[in-house]
């Protein structure tokens, strides 16, 4: 195993052991100027599941993901991916979140080769650690579970409406 693969494996294990955003916060009744949504997703292949809540602030500069919280159970990949995603999208505008979601999906389709663009992979931060996961089709769904919950939560919040 290369040094890079070992580092990536350690990032995933660290996020699985010390997840960011774990523990559902807030409620379905958002504060003034905020939108909230919740989604429960299950990976039927392995039984991993996640319930995710998103808080979106509606400001003069557009809508921003102001908070993500989640609760889930499953393998270290699904739990670490939700943690990394929470850290990555919190505080970002919806256009940037959509871009990061697309780039992460591209990474998961790379079959372990990565994206071939250091700047794009740098934008993913710790999420680039999932490059190796993309070699294993059965694990890709695990890595995407939290992202699916985020996208559904945003849709349910009404934040994606024009």
UniProtKB/TrEMBL annotation:
Name the segments for region: Disordered. Answer: 18-44
Q: Which Pfam families match?
A: NifU_N
InterPro entries reported in the protein's UniProt record? NIF_FeS_clus_asmbl_NifU_N
- CDD domains given in the database record: IscU_like
UniProt domain NIF system FeS cluster assembly NifU N-terminal: residue ranges: 7-142
- Look up the domain of life of the source: Bacteria
Protein name from the UniProt record: Iron-sulfur cluster assembly scaffold protein
Q: Which organism is it from?
A: Isoptericola cucumis
Its organism's taxonomic lineage begins at: Bacteria, Bacillati, Actinomycetota, Actinomycetes, Micrococcales
